[in-house]
Amino acid sequence: MDLVVVKFGGTSVGDGSRIKKAAQSVVNEYMKGSRVVVVVSAVNKTTDELIGLSDEAIGASLTDKQKAEIMAMGELTSARLFSATIESLGVKSEFIDPYSELWPIQTDSNYLEAKIDFNTTRKKTEGILQLVNQGVIPVICGFLGQGPSGEITTLGRGGSDITAFLIGHCLDANEVIIVTDVDGVMSTDPNKIEEAQLLEEISVEELRDLATHGAQVLHPHALKYKDPLITAKIINFEHGDLSSKGTRILGPYEGEMLKCVTLYKNPISLIAIVGEAMVKTPGLIAKLSGSLADSDINIFGISAGQNSITAFVDKTDSNKAYHLLHKVVIESDVLSSLSLGRDTAMITFVSPDIIDTPGIISEVTEPLRKNEINIVEIISSQTAIVLFVDWEDGEKARELINEVLE
């Protein structure tokens, strides 16, 4: 029998009728012959209300331990409600919270941003599997963990998504279903653009980047536990049907695959274009990049300043690109000159943790400074840092950055 892990977000259990509808969808799936494990969030806005009450009543003297225990009340309540609703529909269920002997998710002692002990957690999920194989539907509190001394910890905002993928991974589930208040992943925010379209599928990498840059669909850290053998999808609770299509999440998160340092195989040439008031000229970058695109020349990056723009191209294309960009310069009233720079090595450091790691750029660049490796250019985003160094220093720089990663 297939094993399905289903996570219900706060909106999907926002009131009694929604809880009953969600529980019925689980029972329907169970009746089809599937083994089902439920992960449930706190009822919509409960956690925010609990935090607000705590701040108002206690203020700054509230300890992290107390805050974690208070915040946990939302999930403790919703798990009990959900489990009881399943049983009212005629199927045996059991809620699992950090006070239960079967509680699986083990963490360090950080109360509010706990790190998961994956190996211990995997062993502890054996008890959940035994329960499932007995025909019982476990309802597990999302967002919560258990520290080394049995204390309640939390996994941070969006932690219920982490719980679902983590449990799915540890149980070798066939599928993880995220039930939320949208039909799936859209081409953009439908509240801002009415023409937004539902995506039938999206890769782990694309979804991670969307979530990291603010899309309120799925917690980006949850995708660390996306097993390559497990299918996953996001569906709308309104359908009341776990077989709804929604958006499929494709591909694995294979350990360090999304946390790596790579050195591009060829030298990268830098072409610097200078001029006056460039930053105030609309469409300037489009003209420059368009002239290269028309000749099928790939741009590895663009760096823009007040009076200069630097384009990064493969050395094999650099002479052609140089001449093409020169034509744009002499035809422009804003641009004045350009130069073809030295050969550089392009090193890319990719990690979903970049956005949540203060000082990570200094950590990556400090060993280069100590080894007198000059950084020609640096470009960063919320998930990647791209460094350009002299070509002869490329391999050494990659090794030094890898040591930081390790």
UniProtKB/TrEMBL annotation:
Its EC number is 2.7.2.4. Residues 349-406 form the ACT domain. It catalyses: L-aspartate + ATP = 4-phospho-L-aspartate + ADP. PROSITE patterns: ACT, ASPARTOKINASE. GO terms for molecular function: aspartate kinase activity; ATP binding. InterPro entries: AceGlu_kinase-like_sf, ACT-like_dom_sf, ACT_Aspartokinase, ACT_dom, Asp/Glu/Uridylate_kinase, Asp_kin_monofn, Asp_kinase, Aspartate_kinase_CS. Keywords: Amino-acid biosynthesis, ATP-binding, Kinase, Nucleotide-binding, Transferase. Pathway: Amino-acid biosynthesis; L-threonine biosynthesis; L-threonine from L-aspartate: step 1/5; Amino-acid biosynthesis; L-lysine biosynthesis via DAP pathway; (S)-tetrahydrodipicolinate from L-aspartate: step 1/4; Amino-acid biosynthesis; L-methionine biosynthesis via de novo pathway; L-homoserine from L-aspartate: step 1/3. GO terms for biological process: homoserine biosynthetic process; lysine biosynthetic process via diaminopimelate; threonine biosynthetic process. It comes from the Archaea. The keyword Iron-sulfur does not apply. One of its GO terms (cellular component) is cytosol. Pfam families: AA_kinase (PF00696), ACT_7 (PF13840), ACT_9 (PF22468). Gene3D superfamilies: 3.30.70.260, Acetylglutamate kinase-like. PANTHER family: ASPARTATE KINASE, ASPARTOKINASE. Belongs to the aspartokinase family. This is Aspartokinase. It comes from Methanobrevibacter thaueri. The lineage of its organism: Archaea, Methanobacteriati, Methanobacteriota, Methanomada group, Methanobacteria.
